[in-house]
TrEMBL record, chains A, B:
<comment type="similarity">
    <text>Belongs to the FPP/GGPP synthase family.</text>
</comment>
<dbReference type="InterPro" id="IPR008949">
    <property type="entry name" value="Isoprenoid_synthase_dom_sf"/>
</dbReference>
<dbReference type="InterPro" id="IPR000092">
    <property type="entry name" value="Polyprenyl_synt"/>
</dbReference>
<keyword id="KW-0479">Metal-binding</keyword>
<keyword id="KW-0460">Magnesium</keyword>
<feature type="region of interest" description="Disordered">
    <location>
        <begin position="1"/>
        <end position="25"/>
    </location>
</feature>
<dbReference type="GO" id="GO:0004659">
    <property type="term" value="F:prenyltransferase activity"/>
</dbReference>
<protein>
    <submittedName>
        <fullName>Geranylgeranyl diphosphate synthase, type I</fullName>
    </submittedName>
</protein>
<dbReference type="GO" id="GO:0046872">
    <property type="term" value="F:metal ion binding"/>
</dbReference>
<dbReference type="Pfam" id="PF00348">
    <property type="entry name" value="polyprenyl_synt"/>
</dbReference>
<dbReference type="GO" id="GO:0008299">
    <property type="term" value="P:isoprenoid biosynthetic process"/>
</dbReference>
<keyword id="KW-0808">Transferase</keyword>
<dbReference type="InterPro" id="IPR033749">
    <property type="entry name" value="Polyprenyl_synt_CS"/>
</dbReference>
Length: 358, 358
């Protein structure tokens, strides 16, 4: 994870003045993408019934619980990837607009439903949709967001809109598979590392892969370019999940916004934990016994468990896997025959996602 | 409701020997449709992750809880409408196949999610998906069925497949609106008759309208034919809901499979109840007071409430509205310029749905 956020580029991309080569300002790139996608996303959400719309606008951070203007939602990485993916295929970034809206809608559909399934009462320090309006509302709001994604894509004028909508549907099925496996794994003590990686590919990788490819699909790019972009997104998604799992144990609460050792507190069978249990020898067996134990634990006990993950090789393995995935991501992009500017911006965006303190 | 199930036809339709004019055997037509659609529906469901697939196959009546072969699911009216709609537009019925699979998937998506939202533990005398596997599984299984509908349509070879998929997405948004209104109305005592009709149009009418039109859309039929078929489906759907609401109060338990006076027992604000409350004068006010009262009621009290619905005009109004909608349905079909055989079969199928004992 040594590559900095700042990468020198020499071609056009999402920046305001693409003729001037310079470092990629990823926060500015993300802000520009949010501005580009915002109006179309708002117009889509405005079609929902009055209740689902209110819930979606709150969930997306556009309004607060008291009706005041929202403080904003997430970074919207997926729409930025979608716009860049059109530009990388040599088309105007706006060619990817419907794709950008669709992947953001699908992402938020999955968040609203997952929060309910996982029983999470808070997201970004605010009550989740189900916690505020009840389970029925969260189900309907999520269903509505998913449906809008299909609608928006099929209204697009691109002759490749139907192919893009089909890609999003297949991706949604992958998301559902990943979440279904996550739910099933909670009840099992014998989940293997490969199963866990396959689950992460569904839950995290698939939508990032599609986000990084959908603009190129809408632009009618050659298969090799679409595949390279998709492989890039999948590799970045897997690296992201591995880093996220490391941060869930060893992340600084001041940086992650989560309590210290949070994934161990909730006994989450994350990737490093699964590796240590399955392949960590004596430390792994001790960790497995600890995971089977229920009830509150002291911070000292949680630190001891983190130590078992580390002694079982989970920390080292996850870090090495993440680095390996980022190398694969760079290689996938390099072979895709992309425009230089967006290529560099995609690289910078990928590293921005991964290079967090841990 | 005087038209019999049996109608003489003089052109080709879904029957095995379309050259021979004769009465429409609606149960045979439905059975033939189920046979036509079955393999494609099973192939679609087989793509789901292993958990969602098991749940969907159980929900659809293909397997029982103990793993034994299922005793079958519903009549599959919507797929039959979709196939007939292609034939009505002069195309082979199979042109509507992807549409038939899609509407059946969307219908079952809504059943799986609605059962959870409504807290219904049984459907067709078997535990519902959420009652058997939990809320998370029902959410994911429903999400998966909805996604498959888009996939199946966008894989179809028809040049109008994207238009059909867009129609299904807009229809799903209407379904969601109807269910969201239903949820919201539960908490209100002042729901108007028009609001209640609009809600029924979303929950029941919209998918029947789309089922009756989607085959014609896939066949590239003229707008007038598509609109006539859609209007027909909407009118039949509204008539169906009105009759269903009458049966929910006055239906014979031996015929409906529901307990006597079941909708009053659950204090459902059905269409006849809403009419009586809003426009039923003194009887309506008495009924409103009864609805506001909570707690168990004796059968005698429920019968007294049914009497208030009747004295408030709810029974007569709902019956007259249902008949009026069936006349409108026939008129919509008559003006759509359809092939004679499928036209007669659509009419017979509509009456089969509506002409139940009450």
């Amino acid at each position: 994870m040594s590559t900095p956020d700042t990468v020198t580029v020499d071609g056009p991309g999402l920046r305001d003045d693409p003729s001037r080569p310079g470092p990629v300002d990823v926060p500015a790139l993300l802000a520009h993408s949010r501005e580009t996608v915002g109006p179309a996303l708002r117009a889509a959400v405005a079609r929902l019934d009055v209740s689902s719309r209110e819930q979606a606008e709150y969930h997306l951070g556009w309004v607060e619980a008291d009706g005041s203007p929202g403080r904003g939602g997430g970074k919207a990485v997926r729409p930025a990837l979608a716009l860049l993916s059109a530009a990388a295929a040599g088309a105007p970034a706006e060619t990817g607009l419907a794709g950008a809206v669709a992947v953001e809608l699908v992402h938020n559909f999955s968040l609203v439903h997952d929060d309910l399934m996982d029983g999470d009462r808070e997201r970004r320090h605010r009550p989740t949709v189900w916690a505020r309006w009840g389970a029925a509302s969260a189900i309907l709001c999520g269903d509505g967001l998913l449906t809008l994604a299909t609608e928006v894509l099929l209204e697009d004028r691109s002759p490749h809109a139907a192919a893009a909508a089909r890609l999003v549907a297949v991706t949604t099925r992958e998301l559902i598979r990943g979440q279904a496996e996550d739910v099933a794994f909670e009840r099992r003590a014998d989940v293997g590392v490969d199963e866990c990686l396959t689950m992460a590919a569904g839950k995290t990788g698939s939508l990032l892969a599609t986000s990084a490819a959908i603009g190129a699909v809408l632009a009618g790019a050659p298969t090799a370019a679409v595949r390279g972009l998709s492989d890039y997104g999948m590799a970045v998604g897997m690296a992201f999940q591995l880093v996220d799992d490391l941060l869930g144990i060893w992340g600084d609460p001041a940086v992650t916004g989560k309590p210290v050792l949070s994934d161990l507190r909730s006994r989450k069978k994350s990737l490093p934990v699964t590796f240590a249990v399955q392949r960590g020898g004596a430390a792994g067996r001790e960790l497995a016994a600890w995971l089977a134990h229920t009830g509150e634990q002291t911070d000292a006990e949680l630190r001891a468990a983190a130590d078992l993950v580390e002694r079982g090789g989970g920390r080292e393995w996850a870090g090495a896997e993440a680095r390996r995935r980022m190398v694969a991501a760079e290689r996938a992009l390099a072979g895709a025959g992309l425009a230089a500017g967006p290529h560099a911006e995609l690289l910078a965006l990928g590293h921005h996602l991964i290079d967090r303190e841990f």
